[in-house]
Amino acid sequence: MKRPLFRVNAAFWLVSALFYLVSHLVLRFYFHDLWKDEWQSWFVVRDMSTIDMLKFLYYEGHPSLWYLYLKPFTLLSEWIRDDILIKVAHALPFIGFVFLMSSFRKVPTWLLALFLLGYFPFYEYGLISRGYIFVCLTLFGIVRLHDTSFKYRHWWLASLYFLACQTEVYGLIGAGLLYFYYYIMPTGPSVKVVIKKLSDQEVFTPFLALCLGVLVFYITVNWAPDADEVRGRLVNIMSAYDGKTGFAQAFHGIFGRTFFPFSGISSVNNILPISVWSSLALISAGIVLWPFKRLLILFTIYASLVLFFASTTYSGGLRQWGMAYVFFMVCVFMMDFSLIKKNQSVLLALLLILISHSIYNVIAVRDSIRFPFTNARLTGLYIQSKLPPSAPIVGISPFNTAAASGYADRMFYELPEGVPFTYFRWLEKVYYPPEEELRLFAAYKKASVLYVITHEPISPDRYPSLRLVKAFDSFSLKNENFYIYQLI
User: What's the pLDDT at 263?
Assistant: First the structure.
C-alpha cells in the first residue's frame, strides 16, 4: 500500500490554528500602533454618555454595534491603558471569527487556510481595530447557521440579521441579500408565495428582525435635523479630491484594488493599469460563481449596490472596498464544492484571487514589522516623559492630532473655545489661533509654559514665537506625523 507523502490529523490543524492566532496577537500587541481612526471610536465611547454617543453616531456615519460593544471596556480605562483595551476588545471578535470559519466542515481546508491568511481577514479587518470585523462575523455566522438545524435556530438567525444591520451599511446590504437568497430565491419573488412563507415562524422571525435592524440603522444615522447637510458636506469634500470619487474610482477600488490588492502598488500598476486588474477581477469572480447562478446573481446585486453607494455617497478606501471581497467569499463558502472538484477553471480562478491576497498580506505584515503604522505612539510617549504635566497643550486640527493624546493619556486643548478635546468632528474647518490668542490662553491657564501640537510644520512667518521642540515625521504606513512647539 502506498503511503501519502504528507499526512496530517486534527492535532496538526489545532497547532496550526494556535500558531496563526499567536502570530497575529504578537503582531497586534507588539508591532501595531493605533492611528486616529482607531482612537476616534474609543474617545467617542469613553468620553460620552451612552445617550450622547448614540446621538453623535449620525455624524460619524456608523451604526451602533461597535460603539456599544466598546462601552464596557472603557469602564476599565482607569486601571488599564487605553491602547491595550482597544486591542483586546477587537481581538475577541477576531478570535471568534477564526473559530467560526474553522467550523465550516464542507469547505476545503486549503481554501479556509488561504482565506484566513489573506489581507482582509488577517490584516485590514483582523488587525486594525475597527468594527468591520463584526460585518465578517455576522454575515459568515448567518451562512453557518443556515447550514445547521436545531431547535430555536430561527431566534439565533434573527439576532444575527438584526446585528448585521448595526455593523455597517455593507453588513445591512449583505444581511438583506442573504435573507433574499435563503427565503425568497428558492421559490421566486411571487407575492402570494412570500406572504404564505412568512406565516411560518421560522421565516417570519428573521424577517421581522431584519426589518427592525434596518429601521434602527436608519434612525441611528439619520435622526438629526442636519443629517442631510452632513451627508452633503461629505459628498462635497470627497468631490474636491481629484481622483478620489466618482464611478471610475469606486469601480476600480471595489474590483481591481479589492480582488488584487497589490494593484495599488505603483510599480505593479505601471506594468498593468488598474483597468486591466478590474477586468481580471470581474472575469475571475464570474468564473468562480458561474456554476452557481443564484450565487452569481447574489454577488452581482451586492456589488452593484455597493458600487452605487461608493459612487454617489462615500467612495472610501481599501477598508470599505474590501467589503465586496468579504461578500464574495461569503458566496464562495456557500458553494457546493462537491460539484466543482474537477472544474479546473473555477479552482484556478479562486486560487488566483486567494494567493494574491496572501501575497499582499505578507507584504503588509512585513511592512508593519519594519515600519511604524503611525507616529502617534512615539509622540505620546515623548509627551508623557518630557513635557511637564501642568503645561497645557493646544492641538491644532483635532482630526489629525487626537491619536497622540490617546497615547499621551492627556487631553489637548482646542481654541478658540479653550476646552479639552479627545474625539473630533472631522468635517469642521481647521482653526489656526493667532499668537496673541495662545498667550492669552496660557495666561488664563496660569501656565508659564505652553505647547502646541500639529500634524504639519508651522510657518515661522505666521508663528515667529513658536519654537520647534520635537518633530515626529519619520516614515509611517499611515503617514501620520506630529510636531511639538513651545511658545516662547
Answer: 84
